Amino acid sequence: MKVFQHVSDIGDLKTALAEAFEIKENRFKYSELGKNKTALLIFFNNSLRTRLSTQKAAMNLGMNVIVLDVNQGAWKLETERGVIMDGDKSEHLLEAIPVMGSYCDIIGVRSFATFESRKDDYEEKILNQFIKYSGRPVFFMESATVHPLQSFADLITIEEYKRTSRPKVVLTWAPHPKALPQAVPNSFAQWMNAADVDFVITHPEGYELDPAFAGNACVEYDQMKAFEGADFIYAKNWSCPGVTRPEDYGKVLSKDMSWTVDARHMAVTNNAFFMHCLPVRRNMIVSDDVIEAPTSLVIPEAANREISATVVLKRMLQAL
Ligand code: CP
Description:
- The protein has 320 residues and is α/β, with parallel strands linked by helices.
- It has two domains: 3-146 and 305-319, Aspartate/ornithine carbamoyltransferase (Rossmann fold, 3-Layer(aba) Sandwich); 150-301, Aspartate/ornithine carbamoyltransferase (Rossmann fold), CATH 3.40.50.
- It has twelve helices and twelve strands.
- It has helices at 13-25, 49-60, 93-101, 118-122, 125-133, 148-161, 183-194, 211-214, 223-227, 263-266, 288-291, 298-318; strands at residues 3-4, 38-43, 64-69, 77-78, 91-92, 106-110, 138-140, 168-173, 198-202, 218-219, 232-236, 273-275.
- Helix 1 (13-25) packs across helix 12, helix 6 (148-161) crosses helix 7 (183-194) and helix 6 crosses helix 12 (298-318).
- The protein is globular and about 55 Å long.
- It starts with a strand and ends with a helix.
- The model has no long low-confidence stretch (mean pLDDT 97).
- It binds phosphoric acid mono(formamide)ester.
- Phosphoric acid mono(formamide)ester (CP) binds next to helix 2.
């Protein structure tokens, strides 16, 4: 595997899940694979889970790990070609990327949507430059439009906890005070569309996900109706994807607190498990009682980030 961005990059999902459970059984089984290999993890944005779980995954495989917080200690980077660099940016990404590539064997990058341009965000302008100029395999640690390590961990979690062979999985929008990217819901939709589940998306009008990710998923604008009989509730806020009105891209169109997932919502489900990628704003996205219930999977879900990252790094090492 040279790039890990979309669900298609991981190939057959049953095989990927079998590998995940093999690693979960013995996470050091491939500890010789990464000997004398270096993973460079580059963060343009904050992280707790991705940073720790990906470092742990690389260590499981015997790799050396370098973590760079671009905004803390590195030179401020220019990303646009043709700019006269007479401002506060001392280095261009076009030099920085191949230099970073020269110090490692595999690169992971986190770079969120800027909301300055829907076109630039959805063309993955930053990550694609890493793919083009680093000379190394690149895996996405949450980009402008996708968060595949999270979705793979979510799929592992659903596989572990499902009580029927084809569970009903509902992705629900929930309110948040700030504009958040669409990376998590985009990827979750993409992975659930590829998995053997009955997948439903619910959100207020105007929050339609890009069709490249939503695919043929059932969209239900009535949240309570969507929740009926659900086996898994996956809550997440996202800002306007700008599908129907491009001028609204990145805007907060609603803070309707009736969409906060609480006991009233969970009561119409099939005793559903609650999922969220974390970090989560309590009593905006989900009530205290729902996230603290025995049916809340947020901690095992986060723990599975180590497993998804180990599988992805293992695949990349095997392809070097
Ligand atoms: N879920 C997730 O990616 O968490 P972090 O932002 O803390 O890495």
